[in-house]
Amino acid sequence: MDKLKDQLNQLNSRLQLIKQRLNPDNLQVELRELEAKTMKEGFWNNSRDAQNIMRRISELQDEIQSFTTLDKDISDAMALVDLAIGDGLKEDEMADLSKEINRIAGVLDRIENKLFLNGKYDKEDAVLSIHAGQGGTEAMDWTAMLLRMYLKYAEKRRWKVEMIEELPGEEAGLKSATLAMSGNYAYGYLKHEGGTHRLVRLSPFNADQLRQTSFAKVEVLPQLPEEDDEVMIKDDEIKFEAFRSSGHGGQNVNKVSTAVRLTHLPSGIAVSCQEQRTQEQNRKLAMNLLKAKLWESKQRQRQDQKAEIKGENILPAWGTQIRSYVLHPYKMVKDLRTKVESSDPESVLDGDLDKFIGEELRVL
What we know:
The chain is of the alpha+beta class. Helices cover 49% and strands 20% of the residues.
């Protein structure tokens, strides 16, 4: 019982430290100021700004409510511990109390993660791409599994997801998929997921069910704000092409040239989008992706310059394995950078990534 009380005291101390850093009173002031903006005439004239404000309001409301709820939950749990010390609790009541303490700890972990989300673009939406690597059909199936994992993670966070491009494999799975993920701190949470993901399992595509190793590469980029001046693209630097989509957007996309390909002439970087129903929607998503790709190119050039000055030999991203998912002969997911492990790969593949991403934010 003393152990449970010590755990609750530690959780309460963590909560008070988080309050000092995030300051709920300041959050209330910011919330009132933003709510006042929504009442002004013409608020929705700039839909992007309005959506960002509404998203921030929702985020602030959740954070403020979390502090209120956590204060009450910790206080209630403390009362139960005191009751147990005096009168005792049944075995099932003790089990419920232990579960409640673990739940509170999980909520605190998620709030603490935001203390590490202070990068320039951490608050922005994200573009996430997955590409099949070595392993043929197995790798394409693995790519589809990773796509499902990130879709499930986005669903848990109540993010909006739009498919930019999806290229099916010849027999099964996907050659690649690119998603636009919109939600609070989407890029901040996902930015360290980029790298090579490795799967080991019994092959479902082999009659002998031999053990197979497959690879897929994940890329994560921020969706840059329209007003951001770090990447400037002139109209005459873009080659625009429209073509008929092979996606799943309905009859219209297959009869009309709704798919879009944009090529940045100075760099040669090309992007395409074909999953939306209209050419305008596809063009907008493609432009966001192109800006993100150009930003990534600039970051890579800066890193290469630093490496040249320092004389470092940095391996290319494609060869950098960050996480292994083993389904046979044992069950284990292990992040090779943070050393975080899980013996429940099914849960991880269902989008339970909080433990991995939380440690990434603290360590990387």
